[in-house]
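We emphasize that the prediction below concerns an isolated chain of 297 residues; any contacts that depend on oligomerization or on bound cofactors are therefore not represented. The input was used exactly as deposited, without trimming of termini.
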Amino acid sequence: MELGLVGLGKMGGNMRTRLRNAGHTVIGYDHNPEISDATSLADLVEKLPSPKVVWVMVPAGQITRDVIKELGDLLGEGDLVVDGGNSRWTDDQANAAMLAEKSIGFVDCGVSGGVWGLQNGYALMYGGSADDIAKVQPAFDALKPPANDNGQFGCVHAGKVGAGHFSKMVHNGIEYAIMQSYAEGWELLEKVELVDNVTEVFRSWREGTVIRSWLLDLMVNALDEDPGLSKIRGYAEDSGEGRWTVEAGIDNAVPTPAITAALYARFVSRQDDSPAMKAIAAMRNQFGGHAVTSAGG
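Result of the prediction step, given as a token string:
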């Protein structure tokens, strides 16, 4: 198939390569002219045959909304926009409604795979009508993991518009909790004098245990590269999807204590001197005479 791809960063650029390796024609557009195949969105749309399919891979939020709005003015009846970024599912519904007024289809697609996706394939969760999905299915088939590597998984039509990004949002919330569990276990193992080689303990878990996973593999890789993780500051950002998962849990009265705790742990990581912990230390000192540590050390 032929499609346009807007946004050629770490994910988008690798996706263009994987699609081309599968025999598809991809016209990419990026603000960086050195990697772009088109000079503008209008030029990209002009180069595509009808019905036109344009896949958007730009940062979530206003940038994505602006790109999709501009595409709505450039595309026509029967064309299709795919949002493969990390947009919030409520944005998908608004974008789909806007494009539907012009008889332009819309599919939202949560994409997981990161920098490894070019080699291993991407897990895809997409939402939209069956007719719209069919227009972009060849691209999904090329991007997902190969058939000889559990390729019957890693690709799902999750439901109506918004279902793809909602599923990816929950996926990332689960990811927060799993990573937090590995991190806490690693810290505890490092803390005791009983365990001589924490990295080898983690490595042993990669086979035959119920907690083996790709994230565990990546943790071992990180420990091999930097034993003790001494080169890394204990600071972690959140992409937004963890927050959205917690909010969705609240909206639907679904308890998400593990995901919520993992999100809050990231907030704590950004505090050099936690104000809340100061208050706790002060109260412990007041009611029990427990020692406090001075601000100077």
